[in-house]
Amino acid sequence: MKHVKILGTGCRNCQATLNLVEEVARAQGVEIRLEKVDQIQDIMRYPIMATPGVVIDEVVVHSGGVPDRKTVEGWFVAPSV
Amino acid sequence: MNPTATTDPQRLAPWLVGLPIAAVFWGLAYSHLTEIADLAIGALGLTRATQLGEAIHFFLYDTPKVLLLLTGIVFVMGVIQTFFAPERTRALLAGRRLGLGNALAASLGIVTPFCSCSAVPLFIGFLSAGVPLGVTFSFLIAAPMVNEVALALLLGLFGWKVALLYLGLGLAVAIVAGLVIGELKMERHLEDWVRAIHLGEATAASGSDQCWTERLHAGLRHVREIVGRVWPYVLLGIGLGAAIHGYVPEDFMAAFMGREVWWAVPAAVVLGVPMYTNAAGIIPIVEALIGKGAALGTTLAFMMSVIALSAPEMLILRKVLKWPLIATFIAAVASGILLVGYVFNLVL
């Protein structure tokens, strides 16, 4: 199971990213553990300069703006296909 | 990871055809705005001689004009921004000295993608990479103030001279305020956890290796995101502006926002702080007020204050700055805006 963290202090883009990640993962049948990191001190443990950031298994895969749907789909390739 | 990346060269073709066609339609529409508004007024059985007719004509002329400009400029900016990821901007600014560094930082503030919720990560990212505090502030002040939405609206409603003046003065305020903060050597007024943080090398700059299809797509996404978010404010702002335009008597605003009223500029700056709206909502109203005798300097000061000195952003920055630094930041920016307001009122 992938551990996904959404880094963001709670602006609209962060929420949109969270929803998109949740939706794509479900659509592709990938089980994930989704965590929201909204304290700035915790966010700054990762090397990002713009929020929202997305961290999968402790690797930063995205920062700044809502990611493309295609990009998100690339993160969650269904295990059976 | 991205399977479309390999097929991208062929996918540039639709852009090469679509973009010129879109540009031609854009140009045609933009050059016939008055005719379209006249036709629409006629179809409604109104004339511009009546108050209602004048107000509706104002609305039907300004709305498509501003939305066309907004879409065009936001698209171009979206493409340009793909060349200036925050990581790249940071690399350009690292180790710069005060002075030239401030000017560069303020200019980069125009083209680097920025949203105020990212202010803190950006701030820390800059400092930890060795960008001086004063240079970082020049960036942070310029980025929200001279943004593409404000420029598009000023261009559409006031013309290129005022848009250019706003751009120049906005940059000047950011540069000078950053210089002052840099000279005061206020690093010790950063929150302790910020000073303790040592950021590793940031992830590779996203965007440096994009191909043109991706950049153009980014432009389109930018339009969807920005125009999709601000169009209701534009409509609301122009609607209110139209009402003021049609119904408020001439010179109504001159009494308390005219250029002879010395306290109008500081009052406008103070009023602007608690207001948190975006350029899209405020500029159409400002235009209508000016039509009724409000002085341009006073209204520009109000606009800059609303955008650059917003209370919510102060609260975000409070997490990384101690009060003396926040107070200095506010004082430097506010004085800059005051100066801009008075200079405008004197010169124009």
UniProtKB/TrEMBL annotation, chain B:
Signal peptide: none annotated. InterPro entries: DUF318 (IPR005524), UPF0718_permease (IPR053166). It is a multi-pass membrane protein. GO terms for cellular component: plasma membrane. The chain crosses the membrane at residues 12-29, 66-86, 98-127, 133-155, 162-181, 230-249, 261-283, 289-311, 323-344. It is found in: Cell membrane. Pfam families: ArsP_1. Coiled coil: none annotated. Belongs to the UPF0718 family. PANTHER family: PERMEASE RV2963-RELATED. This is Permease. The lineage of its organism: Bacteria, Pseudomonadati, Pseudomonadota, Gammaproteobacteria, Chromatiales.
